[in-house]
Amino acid sequence: NLLVELQKQTVAVEQFLARVRSTATWAGNRTRVREKLGAYNNGEISIELLTATFDQFLHDSMSAPTNIAGVCYFDVKTNLIAQFGLKIPREYWTWPEPIPREVSMNGPIKIGEEVFLVASATIFGGAQNPIGTAAGPPVGTAIVLVRTQGLQGIVEDYKGKTGETILGSRQNKALPIFFPPRQARSTQGIPPKRTAAIMEGLQFALERR
Question: Residues 69, 24: contact at Cβ < 8 Å?
Fold first, then answer.
């Protein structure tokens, strides 16, 4: 059933995006991150000590296999204080509103031959409350660059299917079709009419939102 299959893929995509948001929140909710940022904002430690601490923390955090390709940390005045991994293009740095505590997302963006999502989360100071989040004022921002192979795998799961799922957005001028359609793998490529039909479908979906 086409509708059932569409609902399954929609749920899978939403779950992937929820994990991306959780990744950004995790990056900013680590105790050492919050404590050192708070101390720096209060003038208790130097930028050199803060940067050295973050560089070691980021190296340790990203040494294990992860979907995180890059991380940037900013102080409460949006000054970049540490970065590790792939550089996140400046035009995709975003500053989420502290209230509500929602993660902002950008992309997908293409760097080289790989597609990424960018997620930004406000870092809060103070002690953690019973649900595991800090209850104090904002002390900085964490921006993460997340690989999208998992999302691409959902879209390109063609097993037993004759059709395909297209993810894209007409609003994303740099990458309106997030992953290559099924026909892109053929020697003949995608006919212009097929591309036009996909773009028309994306426009229709945008208008229906």
Answer: no
* C-alpha dist (Å) from residue 131 to 20, 23, 29, 94: 19, 17, 12, 26
Contact between residue 71 and residue 146 where contact means Cβ atoms under 8 Å apart: no
Distance CA 184, CA 199 (A): 15
Three-state secondary structure readout of 2-26? HHHHHHHHHHHHHHHHHHHHHHHHH
pTM: 0.81
pLDDT of residue 150: 87
CA 205-120-201 angle, to 5 degrees, is 10
Residue ranges in the chain whose pLDDT is less than 50: none
Q: Note the residue count of the chain.
A: 209
Contact in structure between 77 and 69 (CB atoms under 8 Å): no
Bridge pairing between strands 138-147 and 104-111 = unpaired
Gap between the Cα atoms of 56 and 75, Å rounded: 17
